[in-house]
Design brief:
six-stranded antiparallel beta sheet, eight-stranded mixed beta sheet, Carbamate kinase, alpha/beta, 2 domains, binds aspartic acid, binds magnesium ion, about 400 residues, VC0802-like
């Protein structure tokens, strides 16, 4: 017997038929004698619709009421799945975040889970063999008594945090793909499903563009050592494939140098020419951007040709490009650059692998391979287990395929 958390994402519960299908996946685990808590997302498209309604009724709305509205999507799915399970003769009860309770911070719209009181759920496992169906994405801020939500994609985090709280043996995240791939299979048909990936690698993959899990959920899984599987709810309920296990690196036997290639589209680049080369200038640039809530990513500083000034290049999300421009134009007297150049329509391609820690020249091979394909690199960043290059979006597919092949990730 094992105790497990099964999480089903929006596409897995998109309609009544799929909710019935999810019930069959749960039944399989219950029949095997396991104790099961299920975490559900809203039916696909539902949260988008609810968010749009909030914006529609008032572009500037109370964040507490936004949470009251968007938390409703998961509540519906939880109730429906409990009914579907009962129809199969399985004892089941739905739980909204406040009923457990899942306590969070008061950062409405992007709250952090602080604690989960799973005692009642665990008690019912033993006393009634009851499946708990928990609404993901939501919690309660205790001091104010208000409902909160965790940020988009947050039910992954609900699931992993619940697994940690009730000391589950594992957390199975069911989605519409059967695991984590070496890169997006829509871009590289030869992408392979991985059997295992280390927490650190998954964290980088998710941060650098792989959409399969919310970044925060991987952090929580890593901190608490929750064995987490990514699996498909579209596999036959009586014979699903095991999916990809996210685990500690020690548990991975055959470690590759590069395990995956991720990419993020819609990047923009800003270059400030001839910025004075003196203390305080970086602060003059990046503090106003931070105050405007603009996320700066890659930063490169090079000495200008006149050697007394410096050129500064950095990236921001394309959606924030115009805003960044305005902020920097306003701050021009403080910063003192001569001109501002920019480009949108860029993509950041990254290679990730724990093996980079112990192998030299991994990134250099990529630069050579990309050059051979005539791909110009605009910026580079590296860290211990990954490197990223910024290139023109038109070369996305070519670059991702080139790197995927270079590091031996193609399916044979
Ligand atoms: N329903 C929420 C969203 O669409 C949470 C989730 O599905 O993880 O972001
Ligand atoms: Mg999701």
């Amino acid at each position: 017997m094992a105790r497990l958390v099964m999480k089903f994402g929006g596409t897995s519960v998109a309609n009544i038929e799929r909710i019935r299908n999810v019930a069959l996946h749960v039944k399989r685990e219950v029949d095997a004698g396991n104790e099961v808590a299920v975490v559900v997302s809203a039916m696909s498209g539902k949260t988008n619709e609810l968010v749009a309604w909030c914006r529609d009724i008032s572009p500037l709305h109370d964040a507490r009421e936004y949470d009251a509205v968007v938390a409703s999507g998961e509540i519906v799915t939880a109730g429906l799945l409990a009914i579907a399970l009962q129809n199969l003769g399985i004892g089941a009860r739905s739980w909204q975040g406040w009923q457990i309770p899942i306590l969070t911070s008061d950062a409405h719209g992007s709250a952090r889970i602080e604690s989960i009181h799973g005692d009642e759920i665990v008690k019912r496992f033993a006393e009634r063999q009851e499946v708990a169906v928990v609404a993901g994405f939501q919690g309660l801020h205790k001091a104010t008594g208000r409902v909160t939500t965790l940020g988009r994609g947050g039910s992954d985090t609900s699931a992993v945090a619940l697994a940690a709280a009730i000391k589950a043996d594992r957390c199975d995240i069911y989605t519409d793909v059967d695991g984590v791939y070496t890169t997006d299979p829509r871009v590289v048909p030869k992408a392979r499903r991985m059997d295992k990936i280390a927490f650190e690698e998954m964290l980088e993959m998710a941060s650098l563009g792989a959409k399969v899990l919310q970044v925060r959920s991987v952090e929580v899984a890593m901190v608490h050592g929750v064995k987490t599987y990514v699996r498909s709810s579209f596999d036959p309920p009586d014979n699903p494939s095991p999916g990809t296990l996210i685990c500690h690196e020690e548990d991975i036997v055959e470690q590759q140098v590069v395990t995956g290639i991720a990419f993020t589209r819609d990047e923009a680049q800003v270059t400030l020419r001839r910025v004075a080369d003196k203390p305080g200038v970086a602060a003059a640039i990046f503090v106003p951007l931070a105050e405007a809530n603009i996320n700066v990513d890659m930063i490169i500083q090079v000495v200008s040709d006149d050697t007394t000034t410096t050129d500064l290049t950095f990236t921001v999300p394309a959606a924030d490009y115009e805003k960044a421009r305005q902020v920097l134009e306003k701050a021009q007297p403080m910063i003192g650059y001569t001109n501002l150049q920019g480009a949108t329509d860029l993509v950041k391609v990254s290679a990730i692998g724990i093996g980079m820690r112990s192998h030299a020249g991994v990134a250099a091979r990529a630069f050579k391979a990309l050059a051979e394909k005539g791909i110009n690199i605009r910026a580079i960043t590296t860290s211990e287990i990954k490197f990223s290059v910024l290139i023109d979006a038109a070369y996305t597919e070519l670059a991702v395929r080139t790197l995927h092949m270079l590091y031996g990730l193609d399916k044979v």
